[in-house]
Amino acid sequence: MNTKKIFVKSYGCQMNVYDSNRIKDLFFEEGYVITNDIKDANLIVLNTCHIREKAAEKVYSDIGRIKKINKKKSKDDYKLVVAGCVAQAEGVEIQKRAPVVDFVVGPQAYHKLPNMIKNEDISINDDFLQNEKFNHLVYNSSNSVSEFVSIQEGCNKFCTFCVVPYTRGAEFSRSVEDIQKEILKYKEKGIQEIILLGQNVNAYHGIGADGKTKDLAYLINKVSELDTIKRIRYMTSHPIDMSDSLIQVHGTNKKLMPFLHLPIQSGSDNVIKKMNRKHTVKQYLNIIEKLKLSRPDIALSSDFIVGFPGETDKDFEETMKFVEEVKYVIAYSFMFSPRPGTPAFKLKDIDKKIKKARLSALQSLLKQQQAEFNKSFIDKEMDILFEKIGRYKNQYIGRTIYNQSVFTKHKENLINKFKKGIIIKSTDFALECQV
Ligand code: SAM
Ligand code: SF4
Ligand code: F3S
Predict the structure, then answer these.
(1) 25: burial class by Cβ within 10 Å (0-12, 13-18, 19+)?
(2) What is the DSSP-derived secondary structure letter of residue 23?
(3) Around Cβ 305, how many Cβ atoms within 10 Å?
(4) Mean pLDDT, range 6-34, rounded to an integer
(5) Which of 44, 218, 296, 411 has the fewest beta carbons under 10 Å from its own?
(6) Ligand 1 centroid to 243 CA: how many Å?
(7) What pLDDT digit, counting tens, does each position of 196-224 carry?
């Protein structure tokens, strides 16, 4: 009998990538092998993202493409699954719009997928089963250097633009023991970097071995007790959950990297309020000040949405001024995309030309800041953990403590090695070093 092959595509955030890794692991246990060639696959899983309209629509064009590729195959030869946040948001509508889809499964129910496929009894599961999901997952390592670990699911913040509380459900923190068990498996495989994930990861409040609730600072210290884990990162954090204990850990735990992704979305209090982010620009700046006292070299990144309904020229100028003041080392920016089911969907959308102009102005400022930050390391020595091979012969790509991408050429295999490298060149997005 031929071995069955599974193809999984991720469309979304790091949590979505983590879920894709778990889906591959679940089917590996069922005897499947992983293929990167969609034409070869007996099982195709599209692990989707609903955050912006473009991401959500992409899945339908991919389904059309898959239908074409497989037009000579019978439906017994391959099964098509839509998983992830579009699956949760659209449910049965997906099969109505694209009958070629065999199964639909949400982000908190994908552990049920192997049985759904074996039994062919139900074709959709969009239950919120975050309480049981982690007990049924399989944790093989997806690579050899750095692993994502979801420690918290869902979100209770209900920012007015965002679909996540509806697609991933209510906030749920895994227990410390459960997380440790997963990380131990990666440690045994030689993984040296752990990236703790959650949509509000700094609101983590899992149960510890003593039955008491533990925070993220505690968890970071616990993970850092594992001698071969050398680097710890966490994302994404919400400003209102940036506790003093977490800020302190940045100064005391040497394995915690001096890099923090702390989205503010806008530099205007008016807009932040309309987004229901529950803090002000001043409060955010106070957090940064405290972080710098704790870890003076901390590098910051953020997310921004431009053209939120009601954003005036003055509001946008405030965002630009704010960015000039903070100086991010990297930041992601998006045009507001009205999402069905969210409160901001009903508000009057801003003219697309204005949104585009604002996005382009903000992105050129952010790019300039990133380039300046990268340039400041020329001729300096940095610690680099190498992760993967590059496009060219003998080329290796790694990361600095500030999460910058660094490449070099070397005869020796550098993967999963720490090296000190002298930075010889910088571009807007990466560094080149000599080891
Ligand atoms: N939980 C994180 C937070 O609170 O910042 C990130 C949530 S989301 C996965 C990642 C980013 O997508 C957000 O920070 C926001 O900038 C952007 N985003 C979310 N909804 C959006 C929308 N409707 N339109 C445009 N960008 C959006
Ligand atoms: Fe979305 Fe806000 Fe939750 Fe982040 S905190 S996932 S932006 S609702
Ligand atoms: Fe997208 Fe869902 Fe992540 S909507 S950004 S895949 S939580």
Answers:
(1) middle
(2) H
(3) 26
(4) 96
(5) 411
(6) 21
(7) 999 999 999 999 999 999 999 999 999 99
Rounded Cα distance between 212 and 207, Å, is 6
Residue-wise pLDDT for 310-333, tens only, equals 999 999 999 999 999 999 999 999
**Cβ 337 under 6 angstroms from ligand 1:** yes
Whole-angstrom CA distances from 198 to 18, 92, 103, 150, 245 are 11, 27, 26, 6, 18
Number of helices (H), then strands (E), in the chain: 14, 21
**Residue linked to tokens 């639909």:** 104
Cβ–Cβ under 8 Å, residues 109 and 129: yes
Does the bond joining 236 to the residue before it have cis omega, within 30 degrees of 0? Answer: yes
- Please give the distance, rounded to the nearest whole angstrom, from the Cα atom of residue 159 to the centre of ligand 2: 5
For the chain, the straight-line distance linking the first and the last C-alpha, in angstroms and rounded, comes to: 49
Cβ 263 under 6 angstroms from ligand 1: yes
Tokens encoding 137: 């997952």
Q: For residues 409 and 393, give the distance between their C-alpha atoms in angstroms, rounded to a whole number.
A: 8
Ligand at shortest distance from the CA of 264: 1
Segment 302-310 shows an average pLDDT of 98
So what's the pLDDT on residue 1?
Answer: 60
